[in-house]
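Field guide to reading this record: the first block holds the primary sequence, the second block holds the structure written as discrete tokens, and the final block holds curator observations. Each block starts with its own label. This record concerns histidine kinase, catalogued under organism Neotamlana laminarinivorans.

BLOCK 1 — SEQUENCE
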Amino acid sequence: MRKKGLFFLLFISFVGFSQSKDNDIDSLAIELAFQEQDSLKVKTSLKLIKSLYEIGSYDRALQYVIESEKLSNTLNYKDAQAKISYYKSLIYDKKGDYINAISGFSKSKDLFKALKDTINIAKVNNSIGVLEVKKGNYNTGMQHTLAAIKELESTNLNNELNIAYTNLGNCYYQLNDTDKAINYFTKALNIQKQLNNTTDEVSTNFKLAELYSIKKEHRKTIEVYENLLANEAINKSDLAHIYPKIGSEYLKFNDFENATKYLVKGYNYNVKNERSDDFLEVLNSLGELNINKKRLKIAEKQLKQSGALAKELNNEKELLRHYLLMKKLDSIKKRFDKAYLWQQKYYELNTSILKKQNKISNELVTGNLNIVEHSSFDSLINEKETSVVEIKPTENEIENRENYNKLKILFYGLLAALAIASTFLILMYIKRNNSIKYTQELEEKNVKIELQNQAFLEQTKHLENVNNVKDKLFSIVSHDLKDSLSSITGFIELLRDGSLSREEFENLIPELSENASNASLLMFNLLNWSKSQMQSLEPKPTLFDIQEVFEEKVRIIETRLESKGITIIDHSLRDFVYADRSMIEIVTQNLLANALKFSKTGDTITVANHISNGSCIFSVNDTGVGISKSNIDKLFKSNTFTTNGTNNEKGTGLGLSICKEMVELNNGKIWVESTLGVGSTFYVELPKSKPKR
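BLOCK 2 — STRUCTURE
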């Protein structure tokens, strides 16, 4: 009821004010019609033009401008000519005629300079500054506005100061200089309060709230918006803008209750206008809210709608936010390939935005903008035209010129002599250089021959090593693989002949399983080693969850763990790495097999992972027999090195060599820490994203 009464009073006041304004204009028009063609008539006409301009009657004001301009020119009334030209330019600016506006401002400034009217020069500079900034010419605009401010601050021209401060605030906002932008918008806000200009107050508060948000001063942002909500001058359009903004700010503090309250209001205010930037912000914020509350289906639906709308509206800021939210959503849903694509899109768009911002900054820098506030006012007032004066040379100058010509001839003579001497020296240098070059070529040939000999010796040594490895492999295959397969074959023959009872067969199953596992791992390592020797290992990296790999590989060795009486503890966490999954599965399987091989009954194997400097480090720890310091250095070498397990298990000695090669192919590293008799821990470090080249 109180609000309705206030609105009624404001409406009555506005109607009364409008009627009063119209009456003043009518009175001035009547007074003008009966005045003689003199300076008094020009002054009345100027009052009428000002009144018409202030109520937005630009066409009618322009008619009086043209008539007054003719009269002031006839009377040679300089002050009136300057003011009429200024108002004419203001009208052209309002009508969007940039060329005539700039031309008129320039003319009026020249007239005010002749009159030494510093206040009106400041007004013109201020108007030019606003016009140039509106056209995107920040360099020129800021120079003129800064030139005007000193004079304006020494007067009580609050309307002009409001325009100047707001203009500079907008300039620094475009340049991403948030501190200076806040400073000027705050000054403008103080002036607006004095003028009781509620429309500009609301607009300036919106800018300040956005700047505080950019500076991550979210409490201040919320305070500005809540003060606006308490202001009775704001309308529905303002509320439609405020609710999404304040809801987004509460989200940054994880205050979901307040965020929900304001975002729901923002949705209701904007749902009828589904093609607005405010509705887009509501959709993105609701999507983020629902992700945090684990309502993923609703969040995905809202974010799909916001993504399409952001592209339609070409709103790069909200599209950037949409990409981040989609990445977060797909990561939670374990769609890591899609999450990676959203991350790429975010990076590309963010780079494009930064380039645009840098372009504006560079334009201002290359324009040699002198941002020393208040210092350039006098230089703009005292601009003078320069004229060309013809100066005849004196007798001394003629004599100097003759001496200069003589010196010039002597200089050219010396230059010619120097050229001849230089040519002779160059020919000598070329001859000497040729002989040196011939000697160097001979030395290079000798060096090449020596290098070829060294390469031949190294190749011979490499072939010998390969033959040694081949011989050892054949020995392993003939011994270990033969033993395992013979044992399996023997069990099968006994079973087929009926020599074994069911109870005896069941007792032998663990041993049969162990032999089969040994043979499988042996073949597995031999196959991968042979592939690496043929240089056919090509990693195909993707994003995958390392915890899934642990779970899968632990499941494979569960039976062998139980038969050997070993406990396994899984401390792995959900985390994703960027690597070839099949290779990392091979590494994990080898490390678990080694831990099992060298552990005794009652020992423990622990798997775990954690994040370090943007990488994922996982480990396989056992409380088994440990490794001596002398043997640690042999583990990852290309030569085969193996020892028997606690149950006399055999191996190829190739497993850790293959592990090292596969980890390094995926831009990672592997190492071991061990104490003899206490146990061993193998560590693997892998990247979480595609490494930068």
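BLOCK 3 — OBSERVATIONS
The longest strand covers residues 604-612.
The mean pLDDT is 79.
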